[in-house]
Design a protein that fits this description.
Shape: globular
CATH superfamily of the largest domain: Enolpyruvate transferase domain
CATH topology of the largest domain: UDP-n-acetylglucosamine1-carboxyvinyl-transferase, Chain
Bound molecules: shikimate-3-phosphate
Distance between the termini: 22 Å
Radius of gyration: 21 Å
Low-confidence stretches: none
Helix content: 25-40%
Number of domains: 2
Length: 447
């Protein structure tokens, strides 16, 4: 995605109850990792349920540029011919990761311990985001990186010819940084150790084990240490990607605030490193039933039945932030319909996502008549109760898919329609959003 696509204005308006079944697409985090680990393993990896959003398609293209065979067999069904750990070829063109921080950071890690050079870029959002958080630990392996001021893309990474293993304590709670270090550690001799004080999503650890890497977890005084034995032979796998809890958040939150709604969202990952939003919504009084809990593709999943609910504002425990980091935008939209105040602390990382999500939500909510307070690492939303949000404004989405979808959800229960200036970024993570929401009865339209 270049970020120069024609803007797609959209509007959401209040209507009847939402009903039916919402089959949300595959998990974005797991989809990126399946392609990358497939490319680093020996043999043919088969993936089903792959998210075919632009972010993941950009990663698929990047894996081809590094020499892997990547082929689409059917909807969500892909085949990857891996080149093995250390087998990446030097790409003969710039790697454009579009809008995807996960894509670029994980791929930088995956190539950093192979003696090749690659240049990375992205869209107008991605080139503003910090890459130093990844290139700093990668330099400990012996890789070198040159980018723009402040460690921004475009950036060239020269992989280490003789990588050394690394012990690295994460300075920020970031699964992207953790994963970049682990992927780099794959081609370093000896043990690479990443230590995290707060748990972040653990898909890389789960999947590395699934592909045959020796990985163990140790509790240390500094936090949870992930110890990876370098230079394993990764063996191709079949990966069934579960549905994305971050995408499911949009129909779930819409059903909670649109009066009389009752929907089913099947097969949603309930990985404890990802389900903070659901815990929070239940604490706010949401009627969500977690039906048929089971395991799919190595992840715990459940079918969610969601009914419209009277919600109350709460204080979200800051230690829960990492497990719902992508869900704060939609939570703040829902919080506008709660009775009382919702306080979100410890959310500084939201400032460096696809947009500054604290600022984007605060400005859009204010324009819709909702009172908010913000600080560097905090967002407070003063709820107006069911039906209490005036709406009647257009929010700027700033190339951020989750901001776009959050304001469309808000508009489904606001008194006056809510517009967004550009819905095109929704295709990065949830290409079927519009169709799926309309199928539930939501009044979402172009223009
Ligand atoms: C992701 C990690 C999170 C999240 C992003 C996906 C991942 O970012 O915001 O959407 O797949 O590892 P950080 O790890 O930087 O917090």
């Amino acid at each position: 995605m270049s970020g120069h696509a024609t803007p797609v204005p959209m509007t959401a308006r209040r209507g009847g109850p939402l009903s039916g079944t919402a089959e949300v697409p595959g998990d974005k985090s797991i989809s990126h990792r399946a392609l990358i680990l497939g490319a680093l393993s020996v043999g043919e990896t088969r993936i089903t349920g792959l998210l075919e959003g632009q972010d993941v398609l950009d990663t698929a293209k990047a894996m081809q540029a590094f020499g892997a065979g990547v082929e689409r067999l059917g909807p969500g069904e892909w085949r990857v011919h891996g080149v093995g750990v250390g087998g990446f070829a030097e790409p003969d063109r710039v790697i454009d990761c579009g809008n995807s921080g996960t894509g670029v950071r994980l791929i930088m890690g995956a190539m950093a311990t192979t003696p090749i050079t690659a240049t990375f870029t992205g869209d107008a959002s991605l080139v503003k985001r910090p890459m130093g958080r990844v290139t700093e630990p990668l330099s400990l392996f012996g890789a070198r990186a040159w980018g723009r001021q402040g460690g921004r893309l475009p950036m060239t990474v020269v992989g280490a010819a003789e990588p050394v293993p690394v012990r690295y304590a994460l300075p920020v709670a970031s699964a992207q940084v953790k994963s970049a270090v682990l992927l780099a550690g794959l081609n370093a001799p000896g043990e690479t150790v990443v230590i995290e004080r707060e748990p972040t999503r653990d898909h890389s650890e789960r999947m590395l084990r699934g592909f045959g890497a020796a990985l163990r977890i140790e509790e240390t005084p500094e936090g949870r240490a992930i110890v990876l034995a370098g230079q394993p032979e990764l063996v191709a796998q079949s990966v069934a990607v579960p549905r994305d809890p971050s995408s499911a958040a949009f129909p779930v939150c819409a059903a909670l605030i649109v009066e009389g709604s009752d929907i089913l969202v099947p097969g949603v990952s309930q990985n404890p490193t990802r389900n903070g939003l659901y815990t929070t919504l239940v604490e706010m009084g949401a009627a969500i039933d977690f039906l048929n809990p089971r395991e799919e593709g190595g992840e715990p999943v459940a079918d969610l039945r969601v009914r419209a609910s009277a919600l109350r504002g709460i204080e979200v425990p800051p230690e829960r932030a990492a497990s719902m980091i992508d869900e704060f935008p939609v939570l703040s939209a829902v919080a506008a319909f709660a009775e009382g105040t919702t306080v979100m602390r410890g959310v500084r990382e939201l400032r460096v996502k696809e947009s500054d999500r604290i600022d984007a939500m605060a400005r859009g909510l204010e324009a819709c008549g909702v009172r908010v307070e913000e600080a560097e690492d905090m967002l407070v939303v003063h709820g107006l109760g069911p039906g209490g949000v005036p709406g009647g404004a257009t929010a700027r989405t700033r190339l951020d898919h989750r901001i776009a979808m959050s304001f469309l959800v808000l508009g489904l229960a606001a008194q006056a329609p809510v517009g967004i200036d550009d819905g095109a970024p929704i295709a990065t993570s949830f290409p079927s959003f519009e169709e799926l929401m309309r199928g539930l009865g939501a009044g979402i339209a172009r223009g």
